[in-house]
Amino acid sequence: MYINCNTYTILLLIVLCSCTGVQKQGNNNENIQASKNMDMIEEKTIIFRTSDKVDNLVPIVVNDNNEIVSYPAPSDLKIDGKYKKPIALGNNWYIDQIGVSSKSKFLTLSFKEYAVINPVNIDNLQSKVTPISFYDICECPPVDNYDEIITAFNDGKLNQYIGYNCKTVFTKRVPASIKKN
Hints:
It is a single chain. This protein has about 180 residues and is α+β, with helices and mostly antiparallel strands. The protein has helices spanning about 5-20, 30-40, 110-115, 120-125, 145-155, 160-165; strands at about 45-50, 55-60, 70, 80, 80-85, 85-90, 95, 105-110, 135-140, 165-170. It has one domain. The strands form three sheets. The chain has a five-stranded antiparallel beta sheet, with helices on one face. Strands 3-2-8 form a three-stranded antiparallel beta sheet. A hairpin with a 5-residue loop joins strand 2 and strand 3. It contains six helices and ten strands.
């Protein structure tokens, strides 16, 4: 029997396309547990240090060209009637309450000034981006309150707390003129 090249190629494609990988099916309890685990994902506590005071400045997200790509809605700045300002520990260390990352910058606008902007215009915001830099951003486990972090800072043991409990996700060389805690 003679099979030409085209027929052989078609047969090979049919065989390859009809093959499927064997997929292991977990039992129903495993599927339910996986679903519960997804529901239990919690936000991390972020501790960060900057080159200047930012305790009343609104964070935004910029791209590599320092252009704003994301900014909060004014209504996102408050929870239960209070502004979600970063909690100042001292020495430009803060506990984040709104969401910062290594791509974040801060506006020259205070929370109160930003909250009354309506509508928010990205073109107007671009000129209000500060040159303030991050020196450290650390992800820590979620906490019910910040007492342990604040105590560690006040006792001069923040670096130990971070080293033991947290993961440093961003760090930049700190000038010698800035005291490390």
